[in-house]
Amino acid sequence: MGAVSHTRRKRDVRSSKPGDSTTCRQRFVFPAAYHRIIAMDKNELVQKAKLAEQAERYDDMAACMKRVTEEGGELSNEERNLLSVAYKNVVGARRSSWRVVSSIEQKTEGAEKKQEMSREYREKIEAELREICNDVLNLLDKFLIANASQPESKVFYLKMKGDYYRYLAEVASGDAKADIVAQSQKAYQDAFDISKTEMQPTHPIRLGLALNFSVFYYEILNCPEKACSLAKAAFDEAIAELDTLSEESYKDSTLIMQLLRDNLTLWTSDTQGDEAEQGEGGEN
């Protein structure tokens, strides 16, 4: 989770179907490095993932944690978090690039050659982003959700599924978008239903889910009222039970609560008057 931003850009606490991920793996990992990864055992892969994280080489980190996941079995909390951090950074770089290039493309109207170059580059970034998202969704459907034995893990992975379908929805258009949006909403709702009965309102995973689900309503479904009501309910429920917050999760939970409050402030101001600039909400 990053620091709270004071810009009006949206922050996070993240129809194509999950498919064969071979091309994605080859695209983001040099062949020699990939063969070395194949030869490693699980503990070595986890250690290399940690090293790659320290070096900020997130494509390598994701490749290692993908192999750990494909070995089957349930991931430990540490392994689960390493996988999430790796892919969040890998896809986050493409999402950021896509926003920049899309903005440039819109500003080059009337300059045909510049606009064509921007469009082609945007489409290249979109292809990379789709590959990454489908790679993650394949891991979730094939290994992670099915192997999750605890409600916390199930909610974590269903939230992740909602996030990566949401990222696909951000760059989708036409008939394909409707199915992607529906898949994202279903995953978020399934996670939300479990979290309401199995997790404390102050749990950082439940709060992070509420944060990202509200961002989905605001940005993807264009439902500011629903986004605000969901975010406000999550914030109020957590505040009411703040005394139950463990020292271990205090920092994570309070940071997400701050993001929920910031989004509520931003979204409320966006709905007041036609001249208000639409802001992007923070994510987990």
UniProtKB/TrEMBL annotation:
**Positions of the record's site feature: Interaction with phosphoserine on interacting protein:** 95, 166
Matches recorded under InterPro entries: 14-3-3, 14-3-3_CS, 14-3-3_dom_sf, 14-3-3_domain
Name a Pfam family for this protein: 14-3-3
Q: Where is the composition biased (Basic residues)?
A: 1-12
* PANTHER family attached to this UniProt entry: 14-3-3 PROTEIN
The family classification in the record reads: Belongs to the 14-3-3 family.
Query: Under what name is this protein listed?
Result: 14-3-3 protein zeta
- Recall the taxonomic lineage recorded for the source organism: Eukaryota, Metazoa, Chordata, Craniata, Vertebrata
Q: Which gene does this sequence derive from? A: ywhaz
